[in-house]
């Protein structure tokens, strides 16, 4: 696995407990979301200088499931609601402000057979830790339809909030599968874009909260199909590359019917992300981590669980955050009782305010900068496409797209690391749908790499930043390849 990496943090103050062996952390939190970031906040305020391996692709994106929701209306402290990605951005900033250290990568392996525990990341780092908090969450389920893979990202999506603004869905018939809060929320959200939304429910009632169910049933733009299950999906013709219809079966009579839709969105539950822990910790029959009743401790001392990975019943943002608090407090007590806690004082008693996130202004003739590393809007895109001799990253986003919140800072970091050798432009597909349609964008985030007026490469979804950097460096080192499309 290689030598353990040493992550920077402050030194112990005179008279404090001895510093452990080089590279050994007090506490590592695996996973983010409300559970992971709350655990990190509490541990950081206890001067444990926790490391948070946020996750990146395995089991979802940093920030967890709230990154794929619109307005969160039931989180205390926000009487008018708050966008899920914005709530998670605030939690992340708060954890960082108090001294948490984030690694935006995946944990590839966890070895609980030795102490300190050993974690191997996707970027090749080996991290040793005295204690672990597992907050890996859960992943969206799929139906496994015969033609599902063919039309995935070509009409089928597991995230209406990410992809609903895609031009191909505008003014079309759309469908959502599920009967819980997420399904109802997505059905209501999609009425902003589609001409009509069909909610396909396996039973004769909605499992959603009364408020969400009432919203759906009162909305004339939503039709509920009770006691129906999906059999398959199809395109317009055998060779069509975009979803055109779904086939439903009545669960009582067995009769089938075809429903013409341009989009199909899954909201059918989740599976806990416990693959890392198979054979090392006790799991229940559904794959959730088993903890002591009402507590965060697992069967292995020094290992704690928080959030949806150990919650098969409630699965709410507020309960995940609460369990993150419990896990951090329990970990701090355990480390102290074992004589393993090494206090890492903060440089300032009161850290500087986190402030509000910076937002990129729309470029126009007055503020356009031909040398800027990152700009926004079609004006900047046209100018850079025609005038710049540098590789150009174009990222297509939508305001409520959680994965976009994750990816944009990574792309900006790549461009900064390249020292001005490449540039980036952000396109909001809600504000400029024609640009996205012309570019063939079928979901957000989508990234296209241009060089000398030709598209060289395209990515859909969140990728490791090293993949983008390698592609740009390859263009800088070699002549561009002909072909592709223009924006």
Note down, in words, how this protein is organized.
This protein has 487 residues and is an alpha/beta fold. The chain has three domains: 24-139 and 270-337, 3-Layer(bba) Sandwich (FAD/NAD(P)-binding domain), CATH 3.50.50.60; 148-266, FAD/NAD(P)-binding domain; 374-477, 3-Layer(aba) Sandwich (Glutaredoxin). The protein contains eleven helices and 24 strands. The strands form six sheets. Strands 1, 2, 5, 6, 7, 8 and 19 form a seven-stranded mixed sheet that branches. Strands 10-17-11-12-13 form a five-stranded parallel sheet, covered by helices on one side. The longest helix is centred in the C-terminal third of the chain and has 21 residues, at 317-337. The chain is globular and about 65 Å long. The two termini are 44 Å apart.
Summarize the topology:
Layout: E1 24-30, H1 33-45, E2 51-53, E3 71-72, E4 82-83, H2 84-97, E5 101-103, E6 107-111, E7 117-121, E8 126-134, E9 138-140, H3 148-151, E10 156-157, H4 160-163, E11 173-177, H5 181-190, E12 196-200, H6 210-217, E13 222-225, E14 228-235, E15 243-250, E16 256-260, E17 263-266, E18 270-272, E19 303-305, H7 317-337, E20 374-376, H8 378-387, E21 392-397, H9 402-417, E22 423-428, H10 433-438, E23 446-451, E24 454-460, H11 465-477
Parallel strand pairs: 1-2, 1-8, 2-5, 8-19, 10-17, 11-12, 11-17, 12-13, 20-22, 21-22
Antiparallel strand pairs: 3-4, 6-7, 7-8, 9-18, 14-15, 15-16, 21-23, 23-24
Helix pairs in contact: 1-2, 1-7, 5-6, 9-11
């Amino acid at each position: 696995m290689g030598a353990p990496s040493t992550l920077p943090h402050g030194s112990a103050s005179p008279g404090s407990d001895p510093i452990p062996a080089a590279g050994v952390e007090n506490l590592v939190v695996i996973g983010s979301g409300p559970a992971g970031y709350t655990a990190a906040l509490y541990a950081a305020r206890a001067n444990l200088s926790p490391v948070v391996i946020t996750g990146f692709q395995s089991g979802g994106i940093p920030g967890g499931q709230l990154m794929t929701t619109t307005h969160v209306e039931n989180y205390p402290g926000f009487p008018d609601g708050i966008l899920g990605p914005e709530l998670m951005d605030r939690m992340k900033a708060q954890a960082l402000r108090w001294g948490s250290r984030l690694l935006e990568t995946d944990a590839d392996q966890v070895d609980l057979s030795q102490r300190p525990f050993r974690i191997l990341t996707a970027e090749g780092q080996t991290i040793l830790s005295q204690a672990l908090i597992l907050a890996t969450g859960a992943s969206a389920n799929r139906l496994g339809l015969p033609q599902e893979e063919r039309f995935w990202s070509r009409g089928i999506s597991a995230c209406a909030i990410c992809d609903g603004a895609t031009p191909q869905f505008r003014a079309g018939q759309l469908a959502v599968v599920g009967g819980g809060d997420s399904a109802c929320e997505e059905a209501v959200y999609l009425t902003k874009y589609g001409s009509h939304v069909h909610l396909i429910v396996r039973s004769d009632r909605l499992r959603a909260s009364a408020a969400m169910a009432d919203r759906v049933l009162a909305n004339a733009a939503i039709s509920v199909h009770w006691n129906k299950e999906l059999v398959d999906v199809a395109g317009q013709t055998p060779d069509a590359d975009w979803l055109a219809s779904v086939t439903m079966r009545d669960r009582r009579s067995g009769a089938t019917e075809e429903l013409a839709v341009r989009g199909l969105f899954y909201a059918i539950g989740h599976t806990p992300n416990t693959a890392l822990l198979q054979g090392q910790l006790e799991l229940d029959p559904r794959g959730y981590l088993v903890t002591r009743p009402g507590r965060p401790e697992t069967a292995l001392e020094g290992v704690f669980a928080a959030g949806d990975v150990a919650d098969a019943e409630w699965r709410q943002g507020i309960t995940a955050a609460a369990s993150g608090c419990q896990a951090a407090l329990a970990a701090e007590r355990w480390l102290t009782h074992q004589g393993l806690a090494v206090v890492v004082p903060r440089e300032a008693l009161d850290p500087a305010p986190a402030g509000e996130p910076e937002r990129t202004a729309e470029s126009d003739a007055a503020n356009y900068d031909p040398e800027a590393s990152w700009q926004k809007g079609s004006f900047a895109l046209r100018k850079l496409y025609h005038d710049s001799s540098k590789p150009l990253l174009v990222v297509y986003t939508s305001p409520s797209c959680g994965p976009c919140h994750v990816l944009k800072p990574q792309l900006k970091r790549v461009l900064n690391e390249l020292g001005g050798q490449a540039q980036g432009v952000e396109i909001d597909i809600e504000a400029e749908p024609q640009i996205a349609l012309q570019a063939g964008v079928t979901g957000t985030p989508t990234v296209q790499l241009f060089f000398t007026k030709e598209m060289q490469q395209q990515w859909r979804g969140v990728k490791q930043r090293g993949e983008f950097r390698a592609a740009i460096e390859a263009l800088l080192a070699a002549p561009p390849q002909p072909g592709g499309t223009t924006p």
